[in-house]
Amino acid sequence: MRFLILDGYTDEPAGLGVPPYIGIYPRYIAGVLDKFNQEVYYITIDKFREIRGKFDFNKFDAVIAICGFHTPGKYLNANPATLREIVSILYNFKGLKILAGPSATKFGSSIEGGTIKDESKLKAFFDIVVEGDAEAVLHDYFLNNCKIENIDTRRLRAYDELREFAIRGAKIVKQHPSYPYIIAEIETYRGCARALSGGCSFCTEPRRFGTPKFRDAKDIIEEIKALYNFGIKYFRIGRQPCIFSYKSKESEKEEVPKPNVEEIEKLFKGIWNVANPEVLHIDNANPSVIARHEESREVAKILVRYCTGGNVAAFGVESFDEKVIKKNNLLTMPEDVLKAVEILNEIGGKRSETGLPYLLPGINLLYGLRGETKETFKINYNYLKEIYDRGLMLRRINIRQVVPFFGTDLTIKDIEKGKKRKSLFLSFKEKVRKEIDNPMLKRVVPKGTILKNVFVEVKEKDDLFFGRQFGSYPILVGIKEKNLKIGEFVDVEVIDYGRRSITGKIAVSILVLMD
Fold first, then answer.
1. Measured between alpha carbons, how far apart are the two ends of the chain, in Å?
2. Which of 73, 119, 289, 362 lies in the 20 to 30 Å Cα band around 146?
3. Domains of the chain and CATH, by start
C-alpha cells in the first residue's frame, strides 16, 4: 500500500512538532510503515498548500493526518492546520483515512488560548481515529490483515516496541521540505509525577499517561544515532515534563522526585558518543525539583557540559499567586521559582560561543485559572520585577490564556470568568513586554554581542530579513542587509532591540577586516 503522512503539526505540554521542529508522530508512524514494507510518503501542511493544485491524492491508498494542539502558540514561518482544514483537504479522498495527534484524543484541540471547539462531527469523517498511539494502532492494523474491525484505537505502545519504530522511522526526515535544517524532537519519557495528586488543573499530560514511564537511554541514543546518520544535526531532548526528573527512582511515589544524576549524564554523554550535534537542547524543567534537591545542581552542570549554548529550561510556573496555586494544584511555590532561577543563572549564566548564555530559565504564565483575581496580575508582575531587580536573567516569559480541555478539571464556566478580565490580561501582557522583557533582553544579549549561525528565514523587504538560531525558544533577529538569501547562515552583531526581538547587522570577522 502507498501511505501518505500529512503533517498538520502538533504542539503539546511536553512535545513540539511545528517547523523548524519535526515531532515524534510522523517519525514513529513511518517506522511502523517501514517495518511492514509499505511505501511511505511525507508532506507538511505548508508544503501541501504550496503545491495544492498539482497534488494528486488518488495515487495513495491511505492518508494518515497528524493534527492538534494542547499548547497553542505563535509561529514565525509555519501555519498549523485545523482539523476542519484537514477534513476539507481529504473530503473527496476515497482511500483509508486515519486521524492521529491531539485532535484525535478525547481532550480535543485548540489553536488559541481561552477557547475549545467540539470537533466530534469532524472526527466522524475518518475511518480510524487514534485516541491512543498511532504507531501502536497502525501496528495492530497490519497484524489484523489490514482490517479495521476489532482494533483497539486507544492502545498505548510500550517503550520496548517503540525502539524499532523510532529507529526505522528516522529516514522520513529526508522528505521534510526544510531538510536538513530541522530540529528533531526526542522523547525521553511521558507522564508526570504530578499525577500522584491529579496533576495541574489544566494539564492533559498526567491524565493521558499517568505517572512517568521512562525510555532507556540506550534506545534514545540509538534513535539519535539513526537521525544523525540521515543528516540531522539539531536535537531537542524535549518530550517530557521535566528533564531533571528523567529516570528518577522516586517518580512513582514523590511529586517532586530526586534527580537521578547518573542516568542523566549517561544519556547526554551517550548522545555525544554517537553524534556530533550542532544543537543539543532541552525543554521543560520543574522549578520545584531544581529548588528542593541539591542533586539538581549537578544535573545543571551536566546540561552545561554536554548541551550547546542558548539552552532554555522552560519552567511551568503558571502563577505566583498562592491562592491560584492552591486552587489549581500547581504545587510550585514562588520561593521555589526564585531559587531555581538563581541556580540556573549561577551555573548556566556564562556566555557561550553561540553568543547566548549556556543555560537559562524561561517562565510560563497562564491566565484564566481558578481563583484568579485582579490581584493575581499584580503578584505575577511583582515577582517578575523582583527577578529582574536581583540582576538575574530569564531567556523568555511566555504569557498565555488557559484552554479548558475536555477531561481536565477546568470548565467552560472557569474560562468565562477569565474572559471578563481579558482587557486586564492584555494590559498586563503589554506591561511585561515593555518593562520586563525589553530590559531583560538587553541583559541577556547586550549590544555588540555576536550571535553565531543565525538562519535566515523570512524576507520582509529588500533591506530587512528575519532569522533565528536553531534551538529551544530562539530569539527573533531582524537583519538590516540587502544581499541575504533565505536559507543561509550568518553571524549577526546586536545593534538594537524590539520588545522581544533583536535588530542586528552582519558581523564582520577580524580576518575580513585584516584583508
1. 59
2. 119
3. 2-159 (3.40.50), 180-215+228-444 (3.80.30.20), 449-506 (2.40.50.140)
